[in-house]
């Protein structure tokens, strides 16, 4: 089974982060119970000093190169990933997409309706490369801008409704889709380092959202127990 992480700045992470991808890798190692690979065309973290995705300074230097692969970008959203996903799925032979997108779109590029249409295009393009691809999609999670700007909060809420509808409309037995449940009790003060990007506890909560969805719906992996495992600390 080949898993690919797709996301924006919350998924690529910055230099020094563990990332929720790392937490998910630990979870899969502990619970998957069979051979798997993490695939994707990128391995870097975002370096805020260089203002570019050029860092390999992960929180755990023992995080192996083969598990660092992803398709995530600082400042990239559904708008950017939809045109890339067909060629990327074809090249990597990804079986399961773990997708956390939407916040950057709504914040800078597109409204909720346009963002939802880009999400639908993403799914169509992924299936064009692999008609049996699976995907777990995470709604936009709490963030500081939504807390402070009611109009933006309304756009986030509307997009999440439209994303749920897209999952319901497009789900099919040959290529199942799951809508992950956003983390409960996601605290902007303790689960993020700036009100938007996850810190260690937030990374665990994002990984848990994906792990729980796959375990409950597809019996893939086991219950998430990463909060007490290796790598539970870190900034």
Can you tag this structure with a few keywords?
single chain; 235 residues; alpha/beta; Rossmann fold; six-stranded parallel sheet; two-stranded antiparallel ribbon; 8 helices; globular
Short description:
The chain is α/β, with parallel strands linked by helices. It has helices spanning 9-12, 20-31, 78-92, 103-109, 112-129, 144-148, 150-170, 200-218; strands spanning 2-7, 37-38, 45-47, 52-55, 71-72, 96-100, 134-138, 177-179.
The CATH homologous superfamily is named SGNH hydrolase
End-to-end gap: 31 Å
Radius of gyration: 16 Å
Percent range for β-strand residues: 5-15%
Mean pLDDT figure: 95
Please report the number of helical segments: 8
The CATH architecture term is 3-Layer(aba) Sandwich
Low-confidence stretches: 229-235
**Per the principal axes of the C-alpha atoms, what is the gross shape?**
globular
Can you walk through the features of this model?
- With 235 residues, the chain is α/β, with parallel strands linked by helices.
- It has a single domain (2-228), classed as Rossmann fold (3-Layer(aba) Sandwich).
- 43% of the residues lie in helices and 13% in strands.
- It is built from eight helices and eight strands.
- The strands form two sheets. Strands 1, 2, 5, 6, 7 and 8 form a six-stranded parallel beta sheet that branches.
- Strand 3 and strand 4 (52-55) form a beta hairpin.
- Helix 2 crosses helix 8.
- The two termini are 31 Å apart.
- Residues 229-235 have low confidence and may be disordered.
